[in-house]
Amino acid sequence: MFKQFISRIPGADVYMVGSFLTFLTFFLLMGLYLILVDKKQLEQISRLPLDDSPAA
Q1: Are the C-beta atoms of 21 and 15 separated by less than 8 Å?
Q2: What is the mean pLDDT of the chain?
Q3: Which residues contact 16 (CB under 8 A, 6 or more apart)?
Q4: Whole-angstrom distance, CA of residue 20 vs CA of residue 14
Q5: Do 16 and 6 touch, CB atoms closer than 8 A?
Q6: Contact 21, 29 (CB under 8 A)
Q7: Helix, strand, or coil here: 11?
Q8: What is the pTM (predicted TM-score) of this model?
Q9: Alpha carbon distance 56, 51 (integer Å)
């Protein structure tokens, strides 16, 4: 059913490929960020909601 619906829309393949590339790019960049980010910064950010002391 979905295939028939998409085949009736002209240029739908461009939108599907574009949305897939956007999705893939976003998750690859987020994965790369998580690998390269400073671990001390992540630890400090993770403690923010619980830490009552002022930031240094």
Answers
A1: no
A2: 84
A3: 6
A4: 10
A5: yes
A6: no
A7: coil
A8: 0.59
A9: 12
Which token pair is 16? 């599907």
| Helix, strand, coil % over all residues of the chain, rounded to 5 | 70, 0, 30
State the residue for tokens 């400090």: 44
- The three state secondary structure string of 27-52 is HHHHHHHHHHCCHHHHHHHHHCCCCC
Q: DSSP 3-state assignment of 56?
A: coil
Q: Which amino acid is at 23?
A: F
| Token couple for 29 | 């960049």
Residue partners of 49: CB distance under 8 A and separation at least 6: none
Summarised one tens digit per residue, pLDDT across range 19-29 is: 999 999 999 99
Structure tokens given for 48: 């923010």
